[in-house]
């Protein structure tokens, strides 16, 4: 009978002890214990043809090898198991003392955030918040504000008509400015008052500094002796608080049918003037003393009362504040843009 080639078997034992991974170990185990071709299996089978003395001797020998191999395979398998348990302990274990990953909080969009600060600043100056609908009558949006149907000022503000019957009290329009809130408020309240109102407005415009939908905030202050100087003081305080203490801006004469005299305010663009597409100055507001016709239209006696009104473009002020060259960025919902503020 074939005697086990001890040197080869020693070699196998070494291979088991140094098997690099479980599949290699499985293959070695198969090589030794395999049912048909396993070395040990074949050697055991051979015992059948041996003489009784030989069988006892060789049998004992083979049994010892069997035990040695079995133990070696088992031990090596344990090594692999504890190695993978070890990595579980370091990589996948839960360390309850670690700080949690930071929570990602959202925040208000630039526009509502700005509008909140508008309410806050004007609230401190004693202004009450008023409001009006985005769908307005032609009467409130234009006629009562001294803009009759044939007035050229309508061209710059002509907008989205919802109905067109020819009756200004019935015809509806998406409001082109927040000024119709003046008309609503003055018809319903007796002076003196100071109010602030804001919201969405609509015009047929679209480019880097015009959007078909944009936001305005506007103030109206009416009393016995409210002057242009009061208006400048209030506006200056608001501009500085809403943009920057060192903001540069200028008042220049401007025309709006609902004020007399009328002015416009420009702010100096703080970033690259070429990128602003408007040059050094961006128009941010219209203002003036409420036109006597408007007071009369709304049931207030202009001989007894006078006041000012001003309206700001919200997006444009934020553009100046944060040096945003294109106002369309406000509406694109790009988190990379919005999360910067
Ligand atoms: N309503 C004007 C506009 O949208 C701005 C304005 C408001 C001007 C109040 C004067 C007074 O352009």
State which percent range the strand residues make up. Answer: 15-25%
Looking at the chains present, what oligomeric state does this protein adopt?
single chain
Lateral strand order in the biggest sheet:
1-4-5-9-8-7-6
Classify the secondary structure makeup into a structural class.
alpha+beta
Helical content (DSSP H or I, runs of 4+) = 40-55%
Q: What is the chain-wise order of helices and strands? A: HHHHHEEHHEHEEHEEHEHEHH
How many beta-strand runs? Answer: 9
In short:
The chain has 341 residues and is an alpha+beta fold.
Describe the structure.
The model has no long low-confidence stretch (mean pLDDT 90). This protein has helices spanning 6-17, 22-33, 39-46, 52-92, 110-124, 138-141, 153-157, 180-188, 228-242, 273-276, 292-297, 314-322, 335-338, and strands spanning 128-129, 135-137, 172-174, 193-202, 213-223, 249-253, 259-268, 281-290, 306-313. The longest helix has 41 residues, at 52-92. It has two domains: 6-90, no CATH class; 110-338, BirA Bifunctional Protein, domain 2. The strands form two sheets. Strands 1-4-5-9-8-7-6 form a seven-stranded mixed sheet. It has 341 residues and is α+β, with helices and mostly antiparallel strands. The structure holds phenylalanine (PHE). The site of phenylalanine (PHE) has 11 residues, from strand 8 and strand 9. Phenylalanine binds at residues 177, 179, 218, 256, 259, 286-288, 309-311.
């Amino acid at each position: 009978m074939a005697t086990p080639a001890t040197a080869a078997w020693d070699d196998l034992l070494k291979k088991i002890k140094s098997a690099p991974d479980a599949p290699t170990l499985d293959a070695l185990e198969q090589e030794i214990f395999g049912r048909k071709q396993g070395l040990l299996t074949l050697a055991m089978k051979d015992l059948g043809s041996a003489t009784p003395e030989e069988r006892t001797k060789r049998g004992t020998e083979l049994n010892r090898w069997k035990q040695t191999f079995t133990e070696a395979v088992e031990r090596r398998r344990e090594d692999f198991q504890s190695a993978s348990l070890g990595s579980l302990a370091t990589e996948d274990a839960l360390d309850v003392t670690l700080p949690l990953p930071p929570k990602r909080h959202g925040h208000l969009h630039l526009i509502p955030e700005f509008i909140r600060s508008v309410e806050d600043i004007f609230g401190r100056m004693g202004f009450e918040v008023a409001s009006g609908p985005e769908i307005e009558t032609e009467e409130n949006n234009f006629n009562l504000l001294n803009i009759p149907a044939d007035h050229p000022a309508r061209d710059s503000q002509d907008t989205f008509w919802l109905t067109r019957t020819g009756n200004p009290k019935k015809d509806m329009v998406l409001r082109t400015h927040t000024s119709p809130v003046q008309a609503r408020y003055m018809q319903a309240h007796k002076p003196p008052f100071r109010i602030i109102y804001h919201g969405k407005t609509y015009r047929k415009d679209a480019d880097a500094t015009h959007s078909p939908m944009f936001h305005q905030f506007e103030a109206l202050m009416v009393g016995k002796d409210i002057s242009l100087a009061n208006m400048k003081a209030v506006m200056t305080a608001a501009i500085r608080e809403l943009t920057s203490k060192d903001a540069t801006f200028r008042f220049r004469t401007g025309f709006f049918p609902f004020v007399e005299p009328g002015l416009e305010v420009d702010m100096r663009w703080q970033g690259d003037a070429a990128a602003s597409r408007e040059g050094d100055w961006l128009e941010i507001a219209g203002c003036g003393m409420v036109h006597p016709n408007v007071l009369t239209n709304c049931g207030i006696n202009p001989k007894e009362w006078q006041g000012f009104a001003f309206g700001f473009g919200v997006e444009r002020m934020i553009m100046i504040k944060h040096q945003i060259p294109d106002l369309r960025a406000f509406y694109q919902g790009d988190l990379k843009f919005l999360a910067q503020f």
